[in-house]
User: Which sequence fits this backbone?
């Protein structure tokens, strides 16, 4: 590649290839990386092989000679030497913990609880004999008892009820409605009552659950000159005619207001 090399010279080409000049020829091969440690550091930038001058332990780089404790080591102590990590754990005597949360680093079994002639393991939950409303728990040889928690009720006090064998109050079902309140003045209609809220074409009924259901009436019969009866929804086309503000009965003849020479008659059609 345009550069002279002395016989026996060795060098590293890009791509981690090791080359040598032998007898006027260049011989290259991939760089071999014999790793002699258990926790080598990753290959540095521009290098070809991992390094044993430090340690990589649980994703954390450690310098040579570092002493550290792993995150979940439970008081275990480790040291980095020549790329190798060696750890030691404390020796603990057998037996139960002096308390539920021991201050030392030794793992142990929490003490059991003896309560009313029975033995319970640490963390066991139980109820007193004949009293399901009290819950007890064994914590490191000590028994702690408390009342069972009750839910928060959203009903008024007079609707709360404690049934036989129950630990907590429950809400009674509200009384069935006796009618329907329809305005701010406290006017109540009994269940089944039908009324008109002011529009003769609209009728309302008080339903069994205390709600009000209303429905409008559609007038299908039409004629040019119907009679409108006060309080009645649809105009009446069978009783007579309304003409120029006056009411005339069926077959009644009357002069025209616009032309006195014309005679009009009310006909049912």
Assistant:
């Amino acid at each position: 590649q345009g550069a002279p090399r002395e016989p026996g010279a060795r060098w590293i080409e890009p791509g981690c290839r090791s080359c040598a000049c032998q007898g006027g020829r260049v011989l290259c091969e991939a760089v071999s990386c014999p790793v002699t440690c258990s926790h080598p550091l990753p290959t540095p930038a521009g290098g070809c092989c991992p390094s044993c001058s430090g340690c990589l332990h649980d994703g954390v780089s450690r310098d040579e000679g570092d002493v550290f404790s792993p995150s979940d080591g439970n008081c275990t102590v480790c040291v980095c030497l020549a790329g190798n990590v060696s750890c030691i754990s404390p020796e603990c005597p057998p037996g139960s913990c002096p308390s539920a949360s021991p201050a030392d680093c030794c793992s142990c079994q929490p003490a059991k609880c003896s309560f009313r002639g029975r033995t319970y393991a640490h963390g066991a939950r139980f109820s007193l004999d004949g009293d399901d409303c009290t819950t007890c728990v064994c914590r490191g040889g000590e028994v702690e008892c408390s009342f069972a928690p009750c839910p928060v009720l959203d009903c008024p006090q007079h609707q709360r009820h404690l049934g036989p064998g129950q630990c907590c109050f429950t809400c009674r079902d509200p009384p069935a409605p006796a009618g329907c309140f329809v305005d701010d003045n406290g006017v109540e209609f009994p269940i089944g009552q039908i009324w008109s809220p002011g529009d003769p074409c609209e009728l309302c009924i008080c339903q069994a659950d205390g709600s009000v259901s209303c429905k409008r009436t559609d007038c299908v019969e039409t004629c040019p000159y119907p009679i409108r009866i006060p309080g009645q929804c649809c105009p009446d086309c069978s009783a007579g005619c309304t003409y120029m503000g006056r009411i005339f009965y069926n077959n009644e003849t009357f002069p025209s207001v616009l032309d006195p020479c014309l005679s009009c008659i009310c006909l049912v059609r």
